[in-house]
Design goal:
The strands form three sheets. Strands 1-4 form a two-stranded parallel ribbon. Strands 2-5 form a two-stranded parallel sheet. A two-stranded parallel ribbon has the order 3-6. It has 105 residues and is mainly β. It has a domain of 70 residues. The protein starts with 11 loop residues before the first helix and ends in a 6-residue tail after the last strand. The protein contains one helix and six strands.
């Protein structure tokens, strides 16, 4: 593991504290985190009444910003829903934040 990534909570202030102080403070320096598309299949549609957000710290390669980019795998499937349910648990989503490396870079 080249750059161990520290664990952190979901506090936005904590995410900001993990920005790389040695990285250039320029608007053009943004790392890209690739993510798989989220496709929904039928016949049951699920509705969530709340969302839980977790933060994943990633190595931004010297940048202070990170953005998620979804892989384009073509058009998603055509789906027909026949039933809708309301989940008792929260849906989950992940946001990304830049982490400092072990060397402080």
């Amino acid at each position: 593991m080249a750059n161990p990534v520290p664990e952190m909570g979901n506090d936005p202030a904590a995410r900001g504290a993990l920005n790389n102080p040695a990285a250039p403070d320029e608007s053009g320096c943004t790392a890209t985190q690739r993510v798989a598309p989220h496709w929904t299949f039928g016949p049951t549609s699920t509705v969530w009444t709340s969302t839980a957000t977790s933060t994943e710290s990633v190595d931004c390669g010297g940048c202070n910003e990170v953005e998620a980019s979804t892989f384009f795998l073509g058009m998603g499937p055509v789906v027909s829903f026949t039933t809708t349910i309301t989940a008792e648990t929260a849906s989950t989503t992940t946001v990304f934040a830049c982490a400092t490396s072990a060397a402080g870079q």
